[in-house]
Structure formats: structure tokens, C-alpha cells
Amino acid sequence: MPRPPRRIPAPRAMITAPQPEAVEAGAAVLAEGGNALDAVLACAFTQGVVDPLMCGIGGLGVLHVRDPGTREHLVLNGLSTCPGACTETMWEAAFERECPDGYGYVLTGFVNELGHQAVTTPGILRVFGEAHRRWGRRPWASLFDPAIAAATEGWLVRPHVASMFALDEQAYGRCAYVRKLGFTGEGAGLYLRADGTPKRVGDAVRNPALAATLATLAREGAEDFYTGSLARRIVADMEAHGGLLSAADLAGYAPDLGAPLEITYRGRRVAVPQPPAGGIMVAEMLRILERFDLPALGHNSPEFIRVVAEAMKISGRDKDRHIGDPRFVPPPLDRLLSDAYADDCAAGIRAGRKAHLPRTEAEAQHTTTVSCVDADGMVVSLTHTLGVPSGVIPPGTGFMLNGAMNWCDPRPGRAGSIAPGKRRFSSMSPLIVLEGEMPVATMGAPGGAWIPIALLQALVNLLDFGMTMQEATQAPRFSATSNAIDIGNRVPRSTQRALEAMGYEVKRTAATFPFAAVHGITMWDNTLEGGADPQRDGLAQGVG
After folding, report:
1. Residue 155 covered by a domain
2. How far is the first Cα of the chain from the last one, in angstroms, to the nearest whole number?
3. pLDDT at 90 over 50
4. Antiparallel, parallel or unpaired: β 261-265 and 95-98
5. How far, in Å, CA of 126 to CA of 117, rounded?
6. Model confidence over 374-415: pLDDT tens digits?
7. Same-domain check for residues 240 and 308
8. Do 318 and 202 belong to one domain?
9. The domain that contains 306 carries what CATH number?
10. Which domain holds residue 443?
11. pTM > 0.85: yes or no
């Protein structure tokens, strides 16, 4: 029998994110006449309410915008900075070891991830304010309405939120999250049950203090966070508890704004954020893999995984050696993305050469993303995070501050060492794919050090294998962020044995959908199709 005809009208706009409440907020803004930037901001404010350990106004992030109306294509980098009171040697004596999974550093007393000294200068609200000034269509205050409603009326703990609340990372030298949830009385009241355990799936969370904070920001603008009444409350809490963040740090913070880094792949342009964001890794891997006929290898065949894993390891090695805050460590982008270097790397892979990559300095998996395309062709992709949550909720504000000092190497003399005003490398890489001047896809992902390798595989799935965005986001993935190859549990055992026969250590995870969580939208032939990674709780929603 023939396939039944499609009865759902093709959407004119679309938004995708890992939280259904946030997607609903963005879709409502689109339906009310807002553009993609408005929708992404409404979505992001709501994400900070319903995914409070993943992101929020006390966090950091990277926003990628292409506006056909103004012909602007820009990235706003809101990665946080070390406070001015920091020194390179301040935690040298407290250093105990690197975390065994490569994410962060174990310091005596957890001072770099729990409490006031863990907080870096938040950048995300200045990014949002500047983006709205440039591209916003709806009034700033109206974009807070869904988030304020969610905080006031309450929301239900979803499966992924519950898994974060219950996360215990003591085996890796990091705090159990119950300590962060209960670090302040306000946090305990919001996120813990009466017996002191984290709230579970289906439990309700109401946060009237956060609703009031968001209402203030809606009325006064983002600047209130940096120089106004909210800034004064943050600084007073820092001063009362020995924090490093100061009024000067908040007032002086400025996001970086500039053109994306672009490369060509299979005749298309791939635009990614510049360092210290993670786009360089995606770009370098694509440059290497363009030298291979990947479909001829077979999707996720042993040889395909070997080739792609080696490209992952090379980009991870080069990131560790060369990529940091460009103001402190100028990156050799021309060499890393050159034809000669890609040719040499590809030749080594063909010859069976294995790149050496000790466990990389990964970043937190506690991140979220949102991508949107509107009816006028504006494309916006945002990835934002708290780094790791610090547990610090300034009294009466309802929001948690980032703990991104955990990203900084306490050992002096290294590319990632602590310095006043320094941004650390972040894997976040919201990207846009173009054919000529026409955008055809956008995507982003939460997932720490796995972000570039997950985005790479989704891009290869789209551009080499012709998958839909949903197929590309849920296809089995693997990872090589160390000398070992990590594989998802849907990769066949026969493939694992073949890789082991090639001399690789292969680690199988029990997770069905591991290694970051890609969300994206394609725009082939002006038809919007979205994809949402099944490991999170979100979706892609079209607006007619």
C-alpha cells in the first residue's frame, strides 16, 4: 500500500532544545511574531528555571547568529573570566591530583568547585542583552514571561534533571551534587526533600525568588546583573563568604563579538565559534576527514571508526597543545587548518599511525543548548552552562552561580593556568552549515569534552550519509577523547572485537545514547526538519 499522505502542515519556523518547557516557551514567542533570537532568549531564560544545574543567568555561553536581514553573521562569546583577585599560584599548594576522568582538578576542600571561590565572572546575560539590542524584535521584558511563569507556578522534575540532582562524582574526586543542592538553605529548600535527599522524577519545584529576580531583569535590563541592584546583592554575598568575584569584575565584563571560523567540507561552508570555544576541533576534524571517502568505509564500520577516532585524537591533542584564551595563547589556526597539515594527518591515519592522547582536560557535561530558525531565515544557535554548579545561591535571588574555576589548572606555567581575566577553553560549539550564502543546517550540543566529537558525527551523518537531522542525532556514536575508543552500547560487539584486533583499547558504555546530546535543524529546499537527541528530555517543535 502507498504511504499515507502527510497531514501536518510544513512549519515555517522551528526550535529545538533538551527541555520541553523551554521549547514551548520559544515556540510561543515565534507564534506571537518574535524572531529566532527572541525565541532562543525566551527558551534560554526558561532553561535556567527548569534545568537549574545546567544553565542560568549566573552562567556562561556562546551564541551564534546569522541574520539575513542585516547580512550579519556573528558569534557572541560569553565564556566566563577568572576574577581579578585570582593569581596563578593561589591554589598551587591545594592541588592534589587531576580528576581520573580528565575533567578538572582535585583541590583540598573542593574550593575550585563548591562555594564562593569557585565562581567566575558570569558572561551570559551580557551576551543576551547585546544580542537583543542588535537583533531582537519583541520587547525584552516579554521574553521573560514563560520563565517567570515556570518559576512561579512550578515545574516537575524530569528524568534527566533527576539524574543530575542525584549525580555522585566522588569517585572522580568531585563533589556529590547533593552537597551543591544543599550548600545554601535556599538551595536545600528548592531541590531537596525533607529527608535531605534530592528531589525525584515527578516532584514539583517552585522558585518565587527566581521569579522575582527575573522580573527585575525584565524591568531593568541585563545591566542590573552587572552594575545594578542584583550586582550589589551578588557582591555582598561574595564579600561575606570570601569569594573572589568583585563589583569591578561584574562591571568590567564584556563578551567577545566577531565573525565565526569557517572551513569548507564537501563543498559546503561550516561556520563554528572561534577559540577559546570548541569550533577549532570540529573544523580540524572535518579538514582531515575530507581526505577520506567515508561512505565507502561503511557507517560505523571498524575502519570508519578507526579513521574518525584518529581524527578526534589529533584534534584533541592539538587543542591541548595550542588552544586557550587567544589573548594569552595565540592559536596557530592557519597551520592547524592548512591543506598541508590535513594531508599529513590523513596520510598518517592511512598508514596506521596512532595519535597519542593522554586523557584530555575535559569540561563539565552540565550544559544545555537551543537552536532556532524563523520564517525569515534567521538562524540562531546557543550553548550555555554553569560549568559545574557552585552551589552558591545569592540570598533571596533563587539562581545558582557557576563553578567554572574548576576548569582552570591550579598549576602555574600551563596553557590553562589561572590568570586574572582569562577565559579557559570550552568545547561549546553551536554551528551553522551553509551552501553558498544559504544556511542549510544548524546544531549544537551539551556534553562537555564530547561536544565536538558528537557534532562531528552528526555532521558526517548529515553531509556524507544523507541522514535526516533526527536520524543524525540518534545514530550510534563513539568517542576518542583519550587513547581509548569509547563506544555506545548499540555499536555491535563484532565491531568492538575488530577494533581491539587493531590494537585499540575499547570501552563500552552501558548508555544507549551516550556522548553529548546533539539538537539541530536542517533547512534543505526550504523545508525545516528538526532533531532532538533521545538521551535528553527535549524535542523539536515547528511553528506554522
Report:
1. yes
2. 30
3. yes
4. unpaired
5. 22
6. 999 999 999 999 988 999 999 999 999 999 998 888 999 887
7. no
8. no
9. 1.10.246.130
10. 261-363+428-527
11. yes
Q: How far is CA 43 from CA 21, 193, 272, 285, 383, in A?
A: 8, 28, 21, 31, 12
In single-letter form, the type of residue at position 499 comes to L
> Strand 506-508 relative to strand 485-487: parallel, antiparallel, unpaired?
parallel
Q: What is the pLDDT of residues 298-329, one digit of tens each?
A: 999 999 999 999 999 999 999 988 888 999 98
**Total domains, the chain:** 2
Question: Do 353 and 336 share a structural domain?
Answer: yes
Asked if residue 477 is part of any domain, the answer here is yes
Nearest-angstrom CA–CA distance, 190 and 161: 13
Number of residues assigned to the chain: 544
pLDDT digit string, tens, across residues 163-184: 999 987 766 667 888 999 999 9
Residues 234 and 271 in one domain: no
Query: What does 495-536 look like in DSSP terms, one character per residue?
Result: HHHHHHHTT--EEE-S-SS-S---EEEE-GGG--EEEE-TTS
CA–CA gap between residue 360 and residue 103 (Å, rounded): 8
Q: How far is CA 490 from the centre of its chain?
A: 24
d(CA 465, CA 293) in angstroms, rounded, equals 11
Residue type, 364: A
Residue 84 has, within 13 A of its CA and on its CB side, a CA count of 8
What SS3 state is found at 89? coil
Domain assignment present for 537: no
* C-alpha cell, 202: 515527578
| Active site (catalytic) residues | 367
C-alpha cell at 448: 562537555
> Are 458 and 486 in the same domain?
yes
